[in-house]
Write a structure and sequence with these properties.
The complex is a heterodimer of chains A (156) and B (775). Chain A has two domains: 75 residues, Roll (Ubiquitin-like (UB roll)), CATH 3.10.20; 71 residues, Orthogonal Bundle (DNA polymerase, domain 1), CATH 1.10.150.120. In chain A, 35% of the residues lie in helices and 15% in strands. Chain A has five helices and five strands. A five-stranded mixed beta sheet of chain A has the order 2-1-5-3-4, sandwiched between helices. In chain A, helix 2 crosses helix 5. Chain B has three domains: 167 residues, Aldehyde Oxidoreductase, domain 3 (Alpha-Beta Complex), CATH 3.90.1170.50; 329 residues, Aldehyde Oxidoreductase, domain 4, CATH 3.30.365.10; 142 residues, Aldehyde oxidase/xanthine dehydrogenase, molybdopterin binding domain (Aldehyde Oxidoreductase, domain 4), CATH 3.30.365. Chain B has a seven-stranded mixed beta sheet with strand order 3-5-1-12-9-10-11, with helices on both faces. The radius of gyration of chain B is 27 Å and the shape is globular. The chains are: A alpha+beta (156), B alpha+beta (775). At the A-B interface, helix 2, helix 3, helix 4 and helix 5 of A face helix 1 and helix 17 of B.
Chain lengths: 156, 775
């Protein structure tokens, strides 16, 4: 079956099966492999994308349910060749080690900062608690999200 | 965010700078392609048919139903495989597919190739296997008893590997000691949980060779293992290493590569295997459970006089990297404290569980968990401050240990001093009381640890590393090594080392991915050897390149080579008034003079290590590292739940090449150590893993890990690049024991098993309360 949706601001059509997840649709049908699959049961957050602006674990969302809706993935973050403040901050502070969780982490953080532009470290930890990382021990990720929030407040 | 990231040796330009990882732009934009994202034209997908019983003989395999499923291209069983026993360690007990017998739930019996992962999985479920079940055994002590089920007839006592070491006269020492204390500890089966599960892509070529894509710490060593299993020469196996989605010791040699090779050859098509999370946990290769028993002789003044130990490992049904893990668990700690007389026996035991392998810390983290909790208890019993006990008995710079290890530099004392100071440990370490009910109490705990920086015994033939530093036609400087970056930032450290030697901006230097067809031969990224051993080879290669550049630049500038300088931070390499040649001009000139060849500097480094003799005497490592951690916990005395609320880590890693990535290593190691102490354990019931997903096997999240305060003390060590030692594994090693000691400090009960789950701690507290009530 064919599903039509908007991905990173562009209208796209994808051939899907009824059981296909949004994550699989993005990765295999649309070639957007930035969204990672890690647990495939919605426990780790690696596949987080924004669906109509809200963070979802795309491994649990049936692709068929996204018809006519708007999806934002990590590939849509950088614009005009310049990185998003979250990407800049993650790089600057070495919040990235193996990096496999990072696309989902950054998308979850983007949604979080849209709701709360000036979070405390404790709020960042609470809001991102659905995203798992095995390399960093989270500290530099918290620092990077706070730095990005500062940048976005100052220059947003 | 109070990290004090020490910037060492300001005289360096690149070394000591908190540079961002050179590959993180791709990782934050989603453009980095991991194995999960890779495909090869014409690629099929594989699925493994796994044993559903813990132990039994294969009577019949019926693939007919699976073969009829549309989309299935091939099914293989042991009949399609060469049938030799092989493996990365002795005893060699791997089969590509089980010949006639399965030994754990998940053992590999057959494999399917199909047009999609879904069809392959469905077909795998349609393969019917008839078994004659055999008795199974899961507990290592049961397995060693006469009459227990035997997994391998060559090992009738189920002992896969036996370790023994003895120095001095332990019996006499313990007989003469003022006190002898005993201690038992068990560290549980623990899953690496990399965010990307195990997988590989394998393509069979017309010349009889195989190309394999997949993360591995040890690509060159993997060729040795796979070539034996597949019955081809090493040259016929090419391994290309994509960026790692985490590993922590799990992705070394993996049998799935050989299964994929046989299947790819049969189909004539490239083939991809990619484990589900459930498969990765339940049929993968966790850190083994280890039982420790110690007897420690100590004099009234606090001096250790002898240690006897027995270490028993639950290896699982086959042998991965568990023999050297067991050895390490048995005697690495003898390089931290002077025990004077030691005798240690280690037993690696076959059981009907999935084969365990190495994890960051390589047995030493577990041994330290057991011993550093013991020291705390011993110190309390004889009335000597446990920190003082560590100070008195630990190795120091210049010491030769009883196993012949040269401790050239040792900052353990400084780590102890600094950790006590920054955490306020001395004032806060008040004696515990029996826990009252319905309160949350705090406690603080300290523990130390050591590790190596490279290990002589990874490969029998040699120790060391080789590297090239290459200046291209366009002046691009590339570092080429055979040891892959595993996500920790090693390539960034190499760029900094080369940039330091060549006076370049480190962000302009690349470190190339590893491909065994073209990369220099390397032992691999393990044993905390990356920065120290490979990095030293990179430094030497850069110095070789520099010498060639000096000669050429001097000619181009018409000046004496001795007057050539490297400065300017980017491309200028020589200066004489206003005369300079850029790296681009150098590269172009060199290629022009040499038929297009790139300017290549070669470096190889053989560390001053010794292959141990029959008694296991010999210096294992070029450099030894040390660290001290302090944890502060909150214990809910009603539920037994523990939260780590504050954390301090002080490390001696020699010169810190990149304080930002080194600090990141400590953060990650501590997080894994905390959860190994408190929550994470692969639960196995009758051979079946009962928590094979991230809901039931819970790795720590943002709210489980506190803010950590990390510091480095600086020691001077001659062998690593610019005095660098290691951090990857030492970052984890003291963590679990610091947490356990903090729990004791909070509630007054000693734990003898990790993880300290709420249920286990609640029972211990309840027993202590009842004991108190009877007094």
């Amino acid at each position: 079956m064919l599903v039509q949706l908007k991905v990173n601001g562009r209208d796209v059509a994808a051939e899907i099966t009824p059981a296909m997840s949004l994550a699989s649709c993005l990765r295999t049908e649309l070639g957007l492999t930035g969204t990672k699959l890690s647990c495939e049961v919605g426990e780790c957050g690696s596949c987080t994308v924004l669906l109509d602006g809200k963070p979802v674990t795309s491994c649990l969302v049936p692709a068929a349910q996204t018809a006519g809706r708007s999806v934002e993935t990590v590939e849509g973050l950088a614009s005009d060749g310049s990185l998003h403040p979250l990407q800049e901050a993650f790089i600057k502070l070495n919040a990235v080690q193996c990096g496999f969780c990072i696309p989902g982490m950054i998308m979850a953080a983007k949604a979080a900062l849209e709701k709360n532009a000036n979070p405390t470290p404790e709020e960042v930890r609470f809001i991102l608690s659905g995203n798992l990382c095995r390399c960093t021990g989270y500290q530099k990720i918290v620092e990077a999200v706070l730095l990005a929030a500062q940048e976005m407040r100052d220059h947003g | 965010m109070a990290d004090k990231e020490l910037t060492v040796s300001q005289a360096f330009r690149s070394v000591g700078q908190p540079l961002s990882q050179i590959d993180s732009a791709g990782k934050t934009t989603g453009l980095t392609q991991y194995l999960q994202d890779l495909s090869v034209p014409g690629m099929l997908h594989g699925s493994i048919v796994r044993s559903t019983i813990p132990h039994g003989l294969i009577r019949k395999i019926d693939t007919s139903q699976a073969e009829r499923l549309p989309g299935v291209r091939a099914i293989i069983t042991a009949k399609d495989c060469p049938g030799v026993l092989f493996g990365p360690q002795k005893p060699e007990d791997w089969e590509i597919l089980c010949q006639d017998r399965v030994r754990y739930i998940g053992d590999e019996v057959a494999a399917v190739a199909a047009t999609s992962p879904e069809v392959a999985k469905e077909a795998a479920q349609l393969v019917r296997i008839e078994y004659e079940e055999l008795p199974a055994v899961y507990d290592p002590f049961e397995a060693m008893k006469p009459g227990a089920a035997v997994l391998w007839e060559q090992h009738p006592d189920n002992i896969a590997y036996r370790f023994f070491i003895e120095r001095g006269d332990v019996d006499e020492a313990l007989a003469q000691a003022d006190h002898v204390f005993e201690h038992d500890f068990y560290t549980g089966r623990f899953y690496h949980a990399p965010m990307e599960p195990i997988g590989c892509i394998v393509q069979y070529q017309a010349d009889g060779s195989y190309t394999m894509w997949g993360p591995t710490h040890v690509p060159f060593r993997s060729r040795m293992t796979y070539s034996k299993g597949l019955g081809v020469s090493m040259a016929k196996i090419r391994i290309i290493v994509p960026p790692f989605g985490g590993s922590f010791g799990m992705k070394y040699e993996l049998n799935v590569n050989c299964i994929a090779a046989v299947l790819a050859k049969k189909c004539g098509r490239p083939l991809k295997f990619f484990y589900s999370r459930e498969e990765d946990i339940s049929a993968g290769h966790p850190r083994m459970g280890l039982h420790f028993h110690f007897r420690l002789g100590i004099n009234r003044d606090g001096r250790f006089v002898g240690k006897e130990a027995r270490v028993v490992g639950t290896g699982g049904a086959r042998t991965f990297w568990t023999p050297p893990v067991l050895s390490t668990a048995c005697y690495r700690i003898d390089g931290l404290y002077h025990f004077q007389n030691v005798r240690t026996e280690g037993l690696l035991v076959y059981t009907n569980q999935s084969p365990a392998t190495c994890f960051r810390g390589f047995g030493n983290a577990e041994a330290l968990t057991a011993f550093e909790t013991f020291i705390d208890e011993v110190g309390e019993k004889i009335g000597i401050d446990p920190v003082q006990l560590r100070r008195m008995n630990s190795v120091k710079s210049g010491d030769l240990t009883l196993h012949g290890w040269n401790i050239v530099s040792c900052g353990y004392q400084e780590c102890l001093d600094r950790a006590e100071e920054v955490s306020g440990f001395r004032d806060r370490n008040q004696p515990p009381k029996v826990p009252p009910r319905r309160v949350v109490v705090r406690g603080i705990g300290l523990a130390g640890g050591n590790h190596i920086s490279g290990n002589r015994v990874i490969i029998d033939e040699f120790d060391g590393s080789s590297a090239q530093v290459r200046v291209g036609f366009d002046g691009q400087v590339d570092v080429i090594v055979g040891d892959p970056d595993i996500g920790q930032g090693m390539n960034t450290v190499f760029a900094q080392i080369a940039a330091e030697v060549l006076g370049l901006d480190p962000t302009s230097v690349r470190s190339l991915p590893v491909d065994t067809l073209i990369s220099p031969h390397g032992i691999g990224t393990l044993g905390s050897r990356g920065t120290t051993i490979v990095g030293r080879a990179v430094q030497l290669a850069a110095e070789d390149a520099r010498a060639k550049i000096v000669t050429l630049a001097a000619e181009m500038l018409g000046m004496e080579p001795g007057r050539v300088e490297f400065q300017g931070g980017n491309a200028s390499v020589a200066k004489d008034g206003n005369r300079r040649v850029s790296m681009r001009e150098i590269g172009t000139e060199y290629s022009t003079r040499h038929g297009g060849a790139y300017l290549v500097g070669n470096g190889d480094f053989t560390p001053p290590t010794e292959f141990p003799d029959a008694s296991k005497y010999g210096n294992l490592s070029a450099a030894y590292v040390f660290g001290v951690h302090v944890a502060e916990v909150e214990v809910d005395t009603e539920t037994g739940a523990v939260r780590v609320v504050n954390y301090w880590a002080v490390h001696d890693s020699g010169t810190v090449i990149n304080p930002s990535t080194a600090t990141g290593q400590v953060h990650g190691g501590v997080a894994q150590g905390i959860s190994s102490a408190l929550t994470e354990e692969v639960l196995v019931k009758d051979g079946l893993v009962t928590n094979p997903n991230f809901l039931d096997y819970r790795i720590p999240g943002f709210q489980d890990i506190p803010e950590m305060h990390v510091e480095f003390v600086e020691t001077q060590d001659p062998y690593g690049p610019f005095g660098a030692k290691s951090i990857g594994e030492s970052s984890l090693n003291p963590a679990a024991s610091a947490v356990c000691n903090a729990i004791y400090n909070a509630v007054g009960v000693r734990v003898h098993q990790t993880p300290v789950t709420p249920e286990r701690l609640w029972k211990l507290m309840e027993t202590a309360r009842q004991g108190e009530g009877k007094k």
